[in-house]
């Protein structure tokens, strides 16, 4: 499940969903410093005045925008749509202006702190607009059109029924009919070809905007946001993937074999990529929905969290209180009273709301909230722990300047939320009284396989989406080769292929929201790497002696202290500094994933003996 979070940083994401981060921008007021200094040589003193002016304006914009977005998400009407759009437009205009003005200080000698803040301003724009007003307006219009085309996309099936993406996604998760899955897979990809020309133009304009800010192209600009050179960042992602690949390869081999048994090896050849429509997900990005097809025998852990919640009388509020107790056990202060008064926990009976789970920080102080239509299920119990991870992060960095009120890099926020969820283990469930006994280790394989189908299977997809866009933005991949290059990367990294021959003028990348939505994707790859390293580090700090996949940091004040130190830093230091506080190293290390899934990997290797693996 994808969750949302709110950043209050100058990156000005008033409401940054995992699927889309809208760049904030502001009103038409020019920072005083820039008007006064336009005609003379800029200095570090001018930079300080400019940054102070921007900070004041940003604080006001963030509060206005967050309130408008909250009301819109909780009271969906034409009027609240309009109010939220107006607030977003103001923040969008401000973000463009701030970035352009910040670029004027590129050759000015300033302090390290000033340079960091100026760079954050420049890099806060995901789709930087050219300085030409007509082109800027055109880019904004294209973004709106692409979002609308995707959001309104439907497919009318052979039976004449009009299906939304939600309808098709649900069927893809549960159907085991090869032909039905293929029809839906092809059907959704009819939505994206009309987007192609707009995407091409969007890329041209955003590239022009990025060059206006001093970057070679938009991909270079995106890769410059990680406290290392763009080339170093790309190399680092490939290095991390290389660490995970042996585990992924064995998971892929096992899953392909089981799918061959289900559908026949004529449909799932054992020496070819897996057909993309058979993995339980419209984009084959996570495979957890086909767990029933590949689950080992006797994998049932012996308990069902959903049933245990009912048995112990948990209602929605008690589920949230239970998750809060996890954090207070680590030494964090309880959530403020306003959290309980202002959050949305259940779907109202009298109005439409956005039910997608999200964590909000409205004032960069104590007004933190979650918005969920909580279902009394084990899955939502996990999600609540994840969302509160965002809230406690947001509160921890509230004393930082507004520029630094965000995560150390854009993968950290999701990684922290998922790190907390990794501690929702059978050991933790027993400690809080939800289950009576911890299953023995023979039951771990099923739990680990189910998690690997979601988390390990996602990693190469998380890498390749931006790999493709970087090639597009650099000009290495041209429009006539969009689709060919896309499937080359899908096969290279995922070992997943199109189930039918695709036309060269198709636009299959556009079937994934983040591409027409203009949302960078590397953050999701990073989050999937970082969460396991954070979990391992915190378990070590807590004095854990269990296998890492059985560890929970619940009740560890030592782990809580280390975690809080990192959270309080926000984005004030290079992410490597935050990493070092927690892990002792400034370099990411994906071997923590191998440690976590070690029992499963041994099991997979045994199951794959005598099989032809690879793709």
From TrEMBL:
Residues bound to Zn(2+) 2: 386, 390, 414
EC numbers, comma separated: 3.4.15.1
Any one cellular-component term (Gene Ontology): membrane
Active site per database record: 387, 514
Signal peptide as annotated in the record: 1-22
EC supergroup of this enzyme: hydrolase
Top-level taxonomic group: Bacteria
Record-level Gene Ontology MF annotations: carboxypeptidase activity; metallopeptidase activity; peptidyl-dipeptidase activity
Gene Ontology BP terms: proteolysis
Annotated Zn(2+) 1 binding sites: 386, 390, 414
Disulphide-bridged cysteine pairs: 355-373, 539-551
Residues involved in chloride binding: 226, 523
InterPro entries noted in UniProt: Peptidase_M2
Keywords noted in UniProt: Carboxypeptidase, Disulfide bond, Glycoprotein, Hydrolase, Metal-binding, Protease, Signal, Zinc
PROSITE patterns tied to this protein: PEPTIDASE_M2 (PS52011), PROKAR_LIPOPROTEIN (PS51257)
Protein name: Peptidyl-dipeptidase A
């Amino acid at each position: 499940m994808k969750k949302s979070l709110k950043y209050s940083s100058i990156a000005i994401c008033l409401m940054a969903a995992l699927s889309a981060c809208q760049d904030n921008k502001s009103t038409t007021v020019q920072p005083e410093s820039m008007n006064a200094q336009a005609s003379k040589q800029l200095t570090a003193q001018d930079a300080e005045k400019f940054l102070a002016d921007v900070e004041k304006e940003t604080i006001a914009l963030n509060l206005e925008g967050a309130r408008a977005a909250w009301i819109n998400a909780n009271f969906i009407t034409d009027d609240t749509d309009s109010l939220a759009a107006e607030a977003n437009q103001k923040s969008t205009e401000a973000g463009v202006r701030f970035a352009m003005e910040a670029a004027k200080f590129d050759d000015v000698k300033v302090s390290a702190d000033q340079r960091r803040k100026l760079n954050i301003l420049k890099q806060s724009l995901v789709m930087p607009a050219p300085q030409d007003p007509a082109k800027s307006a055109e880019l904004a219009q294209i973004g709106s059109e692409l979002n609308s085309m995707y959001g309104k996309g439907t497919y009318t099936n052979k039976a004449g029924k009009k299906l939304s993406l939600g309808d098709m996604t649900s069927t893809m998760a549960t159907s085991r009919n090869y032909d039905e899955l293929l029809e839906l897979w092809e059907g959704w990809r009819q939505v994206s070809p009309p987007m192609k020309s707009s995407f091409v133009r969007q890329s041209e304009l955003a590239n022009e905007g990025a060059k206006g800010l001093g970057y070679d192209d938009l991909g270079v600009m995106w890769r410059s946001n990680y406290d290392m050179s763009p080339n170093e960042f790309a190399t680092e992602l490939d290095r991390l993937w290389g660490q995970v690949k042996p585990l992924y390869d064995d998971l892929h081999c096992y899953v392909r074999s089981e799918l061959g048994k289900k559908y026949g090896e004529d449909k799932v050849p054992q020496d070819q990529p897996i057909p993309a429509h058979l993995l339980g997900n419209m984009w084959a990005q996570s495979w957890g929905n086909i767990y029933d097809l590949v689950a080992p025998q006797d994998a049932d852990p012996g308990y069902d969290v959903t049933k245990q919640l009912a048995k112990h009388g948990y209602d929605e509020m008690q589920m949230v209180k239970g998750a809060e107790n996890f954090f207070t056990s680590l030494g964090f202060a309880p959530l403020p009273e306003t959290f309980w008064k202002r959050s949305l926990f259940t779907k109202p009976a009298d109005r439409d709301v956005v039910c997608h789970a999200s964590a909000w920080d409205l004032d960069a102080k104590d007004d933190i909230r979650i918005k969920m239509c909580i279902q009394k299920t084990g899955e939502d119990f996990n999600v609540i722990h994840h969302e509160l991870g965002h809230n406690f992060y947001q509160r921890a960095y509230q004393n930082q300047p507004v520029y630094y009120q965000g995560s150390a890099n854009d993968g950290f926020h999701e990684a922290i939320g998922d790190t907390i969820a990794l501690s929702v283990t059978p050991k933790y469930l027993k400690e809080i009284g939800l289950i009576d006994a911890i299953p023995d280790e023979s039951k771990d394989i099923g739990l680990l396989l189910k998690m690997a189908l979601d988390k390990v299977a996602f990693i190469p997809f998380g890498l390749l989406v931006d790999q493709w866009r970087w090639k597009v933005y650099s000009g290495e991949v041209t429009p006539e080769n969009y689709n060919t290059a896309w499937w080359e990367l899908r096969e290279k990294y995922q070992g997943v292929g199109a189930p039918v021959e695709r036309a060269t003028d198709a636009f299959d990348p556009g079937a994934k929201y983040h591409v027409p939505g203009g949302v960078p994707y590397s953050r999701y790859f990073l989050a999937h790497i970082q969460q396991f390293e954070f979990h391992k580090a915190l378990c070590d700090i807590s004095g854990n002696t269990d296998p890492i996949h059985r560890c929970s940091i619940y009740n560890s004040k030592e782990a809580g202290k280390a975690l809080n130190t990192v959270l309080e830093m926000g984005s004030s230091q290079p992410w490597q500094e935050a990493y070092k506080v927690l892990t002792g190293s400034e370099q990411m290390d994906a071997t923590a994933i191998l440690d976590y899934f070690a029992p499963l990997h041994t099991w997979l290797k045994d199951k794959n003996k005598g099989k032809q693996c690879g793709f």
